Amino acid sequence: MWTTKIKETKKEEVLKKMEALNQKSLERVVSQRALQMGSSFPCQICVVGLLCGVCLTSLFLAALTSFGSFEFAGISFSSTGFSPRNSTSDFLNDVTSTDCEFKLKETEGWVDSNQSEMKTDDEKTALLYSAWDAILTGSVKGERKFLKRFGLNRSSVPNAPHLYNCKMSARVNKRFDTRIKNESFPPWTSWKGLLDTYPASAANEQLRYFRHHTMSEGAYPPWITGSDEENYPLTRKVQRDMWIHQHPSNCRDPNVRFLVADWERIPGLGIGAQIAGMCGLLAIAIKEKRVLVTNYYNRADHDGCKGSFRASWSCYFLPETSQECRDRAFELLADKEAWEKGIITGKDNYNSKEIWAGQTPRVWGDPWTYLQPTTEINGSLLAYHRKMDRRWWRAQAVRYLMRFRTEYMCGLLNVAHHAAFGKEAAKMVLTSLPKDWPKEATNNPKSDMEEFVWASHKPWIPRPLLSMHVRMGDKACEMKVVEFEGYMHLADRIRNHFPHLNSVWLSTEMQEVIDKSKLYSNWNLYYTNVKRQVGNMSMATYEASLGRETSTNYPLVNFLMASEADFFIGALGSTWCYLIDGMRNTGGKVMAGYLSVNKDRFW
Known about the structure:
By secondary structure, this protein is an alpha/beta fold. The chain is 46% helix and 8% strand.
């Protein structure tokens, strides 16, 4: 489950103060009362004195009031009002008290003037954005209080097109990752999403036979996007075969063997290196016909991951194997005979060379030999990558390990989407609402098309979207680092061919890069709002300064945003970019290409 950490008390205090001290409303009320009382000099003196008092009090409270950004599982996201640039530096930078007053005064102003019409579209945009914000980040009780305070009800708030339905996604993902009783596979068919649950088709005998036949034959898994030509060779077959390997029908069969391994915890090792190490262990498990079972994951050992999900990869992504196999493997950990017979092995059974540079599984032949990279350096495509087999395998392994997100990970993405794209989405949605919204609101029931077909569509984000990972800092000891200007030069090159490209999702650990990004007013730049490095501190020191929860959550958000962007710019010398490229090349993005700022240490 994903949870929120919102400064509820502070939020409520600010709202109450703003309600009590809405200066325009008080001026209006006092002015009306003054006219009724007449034009006597004593009355005028009283009115002037009262207005001066209100002004002084408002200034005093404004100096004391500070309304910060909301926090979600260790990541801070915040947003400010619209500006001509409409960029992320406007959405995701620290929120000052002035920013907060801008947003709240717009919505409060609507409540205080219920008798008059909403004057501007900006006021409606701020109200809709705030309503989505309350629904996304608040408890049910908090959501109700917010809606009541602003004169809204849940049915009058339209769906947010930029957000996932995380509860529904979690149910669908679990269903697609669980073998149906008496079947060889989960309900993988040629249909996507919820379409095969449509009641009318479920009652159709011919369709039921078709589903049974398709599942028996083993349709391709639903987490692969695009055709074979849009992915690395054999991606769909490899993903299906890996799922079968990792999900034996009977985990207690004496022929089923296991490899149980913690995630790497070597000091200074980043998330990318940890994932690369686990890809190596998965390769060993495939070659030795063992089921890989991951154990302790230090980066998930924080308060955001609850219950059994704490310290587990399954806090962020569905487990690599079934719960039955995990239970059986952990039973065998205490069985001395099982160790002696080789029924179970651990990471200590293999040396570092086998884990980090071992042979790629040959189960599927050698499809990397006819792989043409779509990576460009200095205006030329690479003919091949060094260690092409390892590149192909790690792409397959990371795709499998991240095949389905948990509800918690989905929630992290939602908060990032809302902070970055929420106001644009609100402005867009308002164009289709009644002119007098929220006084006049439509409450149409969901149609079958919306529930069973469109529900599987991904949320709206501004497209085309370019993802850019700028790696600098201590990476200079491993590769040639390139200044931000070099990345933006490549961005301009992409836009020369795709002139409708305006949006960039920027991920970086360097504050210098964020500062420079504000100079590019002809781009819409989005980024997460976390503390960044100043100077050349080590990555380990930087992550320690953020804390475990934040230093894990925000990179994973950036990773998934990069994997789904339309274009990508990175550095071949970065392991993180290496893995992002692998996710993209098993996610239908082969023909989008990868522009690299350097050619150092390429794999």
